[in-house]
């Protein structure tokens, strides 16, 4: 009996990583900080921020210009970009996107807990 070869669909995570801008996933490294698991949390916070404001934080220009924007460490103050949102959300992003790793949530669990605490305010 001949072997049947079934082609598996590609892993969607792989495709997403291929499409994800390299700058977003390496933001803190561009600031000269040593590799740390908090880089992933920083990247997740950037994605959440972009979802809420409806545009990319570091958009425009070529990759060199985008990398320079990330190196500057300047993310627009959320409460100024979206004043209609609760100030606690601004506090969340101020912490999650802080240039200093020690000022960010220390773990995915902590980031999740902070987001869950905001959920009732976001639903209103």
């Amino acid at each position: 009996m001949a072997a049947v070869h079934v082609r598996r669909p590609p892993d969607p995570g792989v495709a997403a990583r291929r499409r994800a801008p390299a700058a977003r996933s390496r933001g803190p490294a561009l600031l000269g900080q040593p590799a740390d698991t908090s880089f992933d949390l920083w990247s997740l916070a950037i994605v959440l921020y972009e979802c809420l404001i409806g545009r990319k934080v570091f958009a425009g220009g070529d990759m060199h210009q985008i990398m320079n924007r990330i190196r500057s460490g300047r993310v627009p103050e959320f409460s100024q970009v979206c004043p209609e949102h609760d100030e606690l959300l601004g506090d969340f992003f101020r912490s999650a996107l802080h240039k200093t790793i020690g000022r960010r949530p220390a773990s995915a669990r902590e980031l999740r807990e902070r987001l869950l605490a905001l959920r009732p305010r976001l639903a209103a």
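The chain has one domain: 27-123. Confidence is low (pLDDT under 50) at residues 14-25.
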